[in-house]
Write a structure and sequence with these properties.
The complex is a heterodimer of chains A (309) and B (251). With 309 residues, chain A is α/β, with parallel strands linked by helices. Helices cover 34% and strands 28% of the residues of chain A. Chain A folds into 2 domains: 216 residues, 3-Layer(aba) Sandwich (Rossmann fold); 65 residues, Alpha-Beta Plaits (2-Layer Sandwich). The longest helix of chain A has 16 residues. Chain A is elongated, with a radius of gyration of 23 Å. The relative contact order of chain A is 0.13. Classes of the chains: A alpha/beta (309), B mainly alpha (251).
Chain lengths: 309, 251
């Protein structure tokens, strides 16, 4: 399968701040690519670079064309939902109509009606964007991104501000679009949502990609070592001195994540050994694979004081 | 395709400016008519309220009309600065530029469409109001020098365009308030410069003065008239800077 997006050595500075640092990403065609990261990690910056809104160093190719030189051409095949305000004085219909005209959509009116119906906005078509709720505005943004029936959708926090029903509808819509062969890149703060629909995932932290791969790859990599979570008072130094303990780190929830070289013969043995080594364990369990655990562990130890995932 | 997307953008921007055009139109028409009416009918108005009006010079409609144009220099400075200070910064600050520029339009075409639409919105009402004032004059005096009306309009339109493009250029990089205040400060400095030789050449108001000499009927040399055309250069510089600035900045 070829890659719809190919990013190599992408860096971006805002003055002295390094927003992206040597990012390498490959996004396969037809995939639903979940882009995860804490606030300020570089997700929006990456997305804005993809649509040509930011200048950059390195190489960013979409449909095998360098974004730096071809963004106008590339944007004809992209639907983008930015995390930004829309023109408040435009009506929904006028706003979509403008996108339709610029993209020279055949049978524009029909297409507008289709996307409005798809996103439950038909009755609001003549309402001014400035008079809509946040969730309704978000749906208008999505309608705008879908209007041109693009090959690639880039969605920055598509579910932000949506009520639970609309969230489920949007996620199901994205799945359907992927089934039709569209490629989708979306960022989210809600790990559960990424977990539900993403086929490929990347985790970015402080401008660097720290995990990337298909869900299957990440699962395999994650379970190559035994992983256990424990809570209590742990003497980290003494625990690390044990043969069965490869690493012992606190995650951003304050739990200890213990990695063993392989599966241990009995979990109780590990508990006993750690307790003998001066720790008081209140809770112990093997760590199941979940995107949330992967995310928390990936950024484990990388969060600065006062910074939240 | 490129021309089409430019025209759609221009059409959209002009539509967005429609309220501004209407309000400014009424404002300018009110101003031109109030200048004329106050000179012509002041005596009767004051008499109505029991005041005595002493006017040593007999009022003329032409004087009222020239008064109107002179007032426009200060009025225009405010209108153009306030009217263009958020032309780019507004869209950049609230992020709506992201929607515009991810449609298939180049940054150059987007900037030109915005500049042309906003300048038209601010200048067109002034031109229309001046023509209405002229028609009113022509009706009262029967004869009115259309040539002088034309040139006075050209001068002020060029000056307005200069004031607007300078503020727009600033608005591509700084907030609306900073752009507006910065532009007004720059115009005041440039206006002051026009009083000193030889640095007067650094001020577009100097070139405008050459034109206004012509407007007032002074005899000026032909080469000075051509020098007046340098005002167009003064507009082009901030116009190009605005486009270049949007083209090169992160959004």
């Amino acid at each position: 399968m070829s890659n719809v997006v190919q990013i190599e050595n992408l860096s971006k500075n805002y003055g002295q701040i390094r927003a992206l640092d040597d990012v390498i990403l490959a996004i396969p065609e037809g995939s639903i690519f979940g882009y995860l990261g804490p606030n300020g990690a570089g997700k929006t910056t990456t997305m804005k670079i993809l649509v040509g809104l930011l200048h950059y160093t390195g190489s960013v190719k979409i449909f095998d064309q360098e974004v730096r030189y071809n963004s106008v051409e590339i944007n004809k095949r992209i639907g983008f939902l930015p995390d930004a305000e829309m023109p408040k004085n435009d009506s929904i219909h006028r706003f979509l109509s403008m996108t339709g005209k610029m993209n020279e959509i055949f049978n524009r009116e029909k297409r507008i009606q289709e996307v409005l119906a798809e996103l439950g906005l038909r009755k609001l078509r003549n309402r001014k964007i400035g008079n809509l709720s946040r969730g309704q505005r978000q749906r208008v943004g999505l309608a705008n991104a879908l209007l041109t029936d693009p090959q690639l959708l880039i969605l920055d926090e598509p579910n932000s501000g949506l009520d639970p029903v609309a969230r489920v509808r949007v996620l199901s819509l994205l799945k359907d679009l992927a089934k039709d062969g569209k490629s989708i890149i979306f960022s989210s703060h809600i790990i559960g949502e990424v977990d539900k629909i993403a086929t490929d995932i990347a985790i970015i932290h402080r401008g660097r990609i720290i995990e990337q791969g298909t869900r299957k790859d990440l699962f395999k990599r994650y379970l190559s070592h035994g992983k256990y979570v424990l809570a209590g008072k742990v003497d980290r130094e003494k625990a690390l001195a044990l043969d069965y303990v490869k690493s012992c780190d606190r995650d951003s929830l304050g739990r200890y994540i213990i990695t063993t070289p392989g599966d241990i013969p009995e979990e109780q043995l590990l508990v006993d050994l750690i307790q003998k080594a001066g720790s008081k364990i209140k809770y112990f369990s093997s760590l199941e694979f979940s995107l949330e655990n992967l995310f928390l562990e990936s950024i484990n130890g990388r969060l600065m004081e006062g910074e939240y995932a | 395709m490129r021309t089409k997307s430019f025209l759609y953008q221009l059409q959209n921007e002009l539509w967005n400016e429609r309220i501004k055009i209407l309000i400014l139109g009424f404002l300018f028409i009110f101003q031109v008519l109030s200048s004329i009416i106050s000179i012509f009918y002041m005596e009767e108005i004051l008499k109505l309220f029991g005041f005595e009006f002493i006017n040593p010079a007999p009022p003329t409609g032409e004087a009222a009309f020239l008064d109107y144009f002179t007032d426009q220099l200060i009025f225009g400075l405010l209108i153009m600065s306030l009217g263009t200070m958020n032309i780019f910064s507004g869209d950049i600050e609230n992020g709506s530029i992201c929607y515009s520029l991810t449609r298939p339009i180049s940054r150059t075409n987007y900037s030109i469409a915005k500049l042309v639409a906003r300048l038209t919105a601010l200048i067109l009402p002034f031109v229309v109001a001046s023509l209405i004032g002229w028609v009113y004059m022509a009706m009262m005096f029967e004869v009115f020098p259309i040539e002088r009306l034309f040139w006075s309009l050209v001068i002020l339109v060029l000056l307005y365009a200069y004031l607007g493009t300078v503020t727009s250029a600033l608005s591509t990089r700084v907030s609306a308030l900073t752009a507006g205040l910065g532009a007004i400060a720059l115009f005041i400095v440039q206006f002051s410069l026009s009083a000193f030789k030889p640095i007067e050449l650094l001020s577009p108001f100097t070139y405008a003065a050459i034109w206004s000499d012509f407007l007032l009927g002074s005899s000026i040399a032909l080469d000075e008239i051509f020098l007046g055309f340098a005002l167009i250069g003064w507009i082009l510089v901030p116009f190009i800077i605005s486009i270049f600035s949007i083209k090169t900045r992160d959004l």
